[in-house]
Design goal:
Layout: no helix or strand
Length: 66
Amino acid sequence: MRFVAGGSRAKALSIPRGVAHGVRNIGQAPATIFYLVSQQFSKDQPDEHRLPYDILGPDFWEVSKG
């Protein structure tokens, strides 16, 4: 599922635990992203499984107007 947010309007999105997710600024202007979590990440005992950014192919992050 893909969500495109912004256009000078603040948006909030809640991502359930266990759902792979990522973010990309598709605009020309700098963007600010606030990322809030329900528990602190531990690099010594990570509870998440990291995926390569391109796991879904090189076209995944491309945006097409529709």
